[in-house]
C-alpha cells in the first residue's frame, strides 16, 4: 500500500520524546548495578547497606512515580507535552547529581523519589503525545521507539556498572541522557489534538500539516478531529461548565471508569507478573538462580538481545495484528517462568558437588529465559499495552488524566512488588516466586483474550467512537 503522508517529522518528534525511555532504562538499571556496589563493605568503596535498605532504594522510585502520575495529566492538559518535557527534564539531571554527591543512603532515597516523580509525569505525557501526533497506520512503528530507547538505556546502565567500579561515576554518566532530552524537546511540534482542545485550531492545522506533509490529506484528518471536538462540546457543555473536567468529574465519567477498570486491572496484573522487578534485581536474580554466566555480565547480554528485539518490533508491529502478537508474548513469558522455576527448584535439592555438574549442563536456562521474558515484554507489554492500548482507550479530553491515573495504579503495584521481592524470595524461595509469576501471566493471557480490542490502523477518533458505542 502506497503511503500518502510524510513520516520524517513524526519520526523525529517521537524519537526525541522517546529519549524519556532511555532515561527510564537508566532509572531501572541503577538498582540492578548500584545496589550490589553499595552493599560492599566500606573498605571496598561501598556503604555496607542491608538488603532492606537496598529494597527501599529500588522501590521508593515508584512512590515518586505516583506523585508524578497525578501531576502529569494536569500538566499535559494545561501546557502540552512539549512544554512539560522542557520543564521537567532539567530536574532529572538535578536528581542524578544529587545521587552522585550523596553522602548517606537518605540522599539516595530523595534522589530516587525525585527521579520517580519525573518518570511519573512522563508516563502521563509521552504515550499520549506519541499516539496523538502519529498517523494511525504508522502508530505501531512509533510506539516501538520507546521500547528501543528503554532497552538502549538499560544496556547503557548495565555497561556503566560493568566497566566502572565507582558507583558515583555510574550515576554521573546516567545524568547525561536528560540533557539530550531537554535539547531535542525544544524542536518537537505541539499535539494537534491538544491544540484543538485549547481552541488553537489554526495552529493545530499548521502542526498537523507539518507532521503529515503538505501533500497528504491532512485537512480531512484535521476536520475529523475538529468535528469530534465540537460534538463533545455540545454533549458535555453542562458538565464542563460546572467542573471544567477536574479530577472528580473525570472519575465520575463512564468514558473514564469503563476503560480505566479494564486497562487498570491489566496493568496491575502486569506488575504482579514480575517482569519489571526482574530488571530492578537482575544481578541478584542471576546470582541466586545459579546461572553459568557471570551475574555482572548476564544483564548486558539480556539487554543487548532485548535491544535487538525492540528494533525488530518496529517492523513486526507495522504489519502484525496486535492481539495475537500480545497473546503469543504472554505464552512465551509464562513458559519461561515455569522453566526458570523448575531449574531453580531442581538445583535447590542438589548437594554442592552435584549442583556444579547440573549448572554446567543446564546453566544456560536462566539466561535464555530472562532473554525471552524481557524480549516478549518489550514487544507485547511496552509497545502494545503501555503505548497503544492505554492512549487509545480514553477520549481526547480525558486522555492525559486517564493515563495519569493508570500510572498511579501501576506505580502502586510496582512499588509493592519491588519492595516485597526480597521478602517473597525468603518466604517462598526463588522457584516459588517464578511459579507465582507464571500463574499471574496465565491469568493475564485469559483476561486479555476476553477484553483486548484490535485497534490496529484505526484513528484515535474512530477508537473513541467505538468506546462511546460500548464496543471496547
From TrEMBL:
Q: Which Gene3D superfamilies match?
A: MFS general substrate transporter like domains (1.20.1250.20)
Spans traversing the lipid bilayer: 12-35, 55-72, 84-103, 109-129, 141-163, 169-188, 260-285, 297-317, 324-346, 358-389, 401-421, 427-450
Top-level taxon in the UniProt lineage: Eukaryota
Which Gene Ontology cellular-component terms appear in the entry?
plasma membrane
InterPro entries named in the record? MFS_dom, MFS_sugar_transport-like, MFS_trans_sf, MFS_Trehalose_Transporter
Q: Which UniProt keywords apply?
A: Cell membrane, Membrane, Sugar transport, Transmembrane, Transmembrane helix, Transport
Looking at the record, the residues that make up the Major facilitator superfamily (MFS) profile domain are: 9-456
Topology relative to the lipid bilayer, per the entry, is: Multi-pass membrane protein
Localization per Swiss-Prot or TrEMBL: Cell membrane
- Per its record, what are the GO molecular function terms? transmembrane transporter activity
* Stated name of the protein: Major facilitator superfamily (MFS) profile domain-containing protein
Amino acid at each position: 500500500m502506497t503511503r500518502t503522508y510524510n513520516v520524517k517529522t513524526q519520526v523525529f518528534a517521537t524519537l526525541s520524546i522517546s529519549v524519556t525511555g532511555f532515561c527510564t532504562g537508566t532509572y531501572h538499571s541503577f538498582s540492578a548495578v548500584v545496589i550490589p556496589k553499595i552493599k560492599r563493605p566500606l573498605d571496598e568503596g561501598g556503604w555496607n547497606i542491608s538488603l532492606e535498605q537496598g529494597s527501599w532504594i529500588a522501590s521508593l522510585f515508584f512512590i515518586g512515580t505516583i506523585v508524578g502520575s497525578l501531576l502529569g495529566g494536569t500538566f499535559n492538559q494545561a501546557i502540552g507535552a512539549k512544554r512539560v518535557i522542557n520543564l521537567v527534564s532539567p530536574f532529572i539531571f538535578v536528581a542524578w547529581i544529587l545521587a552522585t554527591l550523596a553522602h548517606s543512603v537518605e540522599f539516595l532515597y530523595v534522589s530516587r523519589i525525585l527521579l520517580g516523580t519525573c518518570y511519573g509525569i512522563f508516563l502521563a505525557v509521552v504515550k499520549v503525545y506519541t499516539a496523538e501526533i502519529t498517523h494511525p497506520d504508522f502508530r505501531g512503528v512509533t510506539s516501538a521507539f520507546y521500547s528501543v530507547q528503554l532497552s538502549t538505556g538499560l544496556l547503557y546502565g548495565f555497561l556503566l556498572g560493568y566497566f566502572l567500579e565507582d558507583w558515583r561515576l555510574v550515576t554521573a554518566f546516567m545524568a547525561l541522557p536528560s540533557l539530550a532530552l531537554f535539547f531535542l524537546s525544544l524542536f518537537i511540534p505541539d499535539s494537534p489534538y491538544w491544540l484543538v482542545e485549547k481552541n488553537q485550531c489554526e495552529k493545530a492545522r499548521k502542526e498537523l500539516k507539518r507532521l503529515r506533509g503538505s501533500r497528504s490529506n491532512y485537512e480531512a484528518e484535521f476536520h475529523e478531529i475538529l468535528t469530534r471536538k465540537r460534538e463533545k462540546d455540545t454533549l458535555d457543555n453542562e458538565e464542563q461548565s460546572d467542573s471544567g473536567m477536574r479530577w472528580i468529574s473525570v472519575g465520575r465519567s463512564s468514558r473514564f471508569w469503563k476503560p480505566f477498570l479494564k486497562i487498570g486491572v491489566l496493568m496491575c496484573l502486569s506488575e504482579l507478573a514480575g517482569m519489571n522487578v526482574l530488571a530492578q534485581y537482575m544481578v541478584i536474580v542471576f546470582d541466586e538462580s545459579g546461572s553459568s554466566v557471570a551475574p555482572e555480565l548476564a544483564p548486558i547480554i539480556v539487554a543487548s538481545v532485548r535491544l535487538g528485539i525492540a528494533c525488530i518490533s518496529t517492523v513486526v508491529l507495522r504489519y502484525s495484528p496486535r492481539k495475537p502478537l500480545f497473546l503469543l508474548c504472554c505464552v512465551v513469558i509464562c513458559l519461561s517462568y515455569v522453566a526458570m522455576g523448575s531449574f531453580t527448584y531442581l538445583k535447590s535439592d542438589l548437594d554442592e558437588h552435584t549442583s556444579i555438574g547440573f549448572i554446567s549442563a543446564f546453566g544456560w536456562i536462566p539466561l535464555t529465559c530472562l532473554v525471552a521474558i524481557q524480549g516478549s515484554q518489550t514487544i507485547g507489554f511496552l509497545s502494545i499495552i503501555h503505548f497503544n492500548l492505554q492512549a487509545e482507550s480514553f477520549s481526547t479530553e480525558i486522555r492525559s488524566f486517564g493515563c495519569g491515573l493508570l500510572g498511579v495504579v501501576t506505580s502502586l503495584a510496582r512499588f509493592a512488588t519491588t519492595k516485597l521481592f526480597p521478602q517473597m524470595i525468603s518466604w517462598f524461595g526463588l522457584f516459588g516466586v517464578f511459579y507465582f509469576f507464571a500463574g499471574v501471566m496465565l491469568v493475564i493471557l485469559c483476561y486479555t483474550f476476553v477484553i483486548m480490542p484490535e485497534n490496529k490502523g484505526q484513528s484515535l477518533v474512530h477508537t473513541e467512537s467505538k468506546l462511546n458505542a460500548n464496543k471496547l
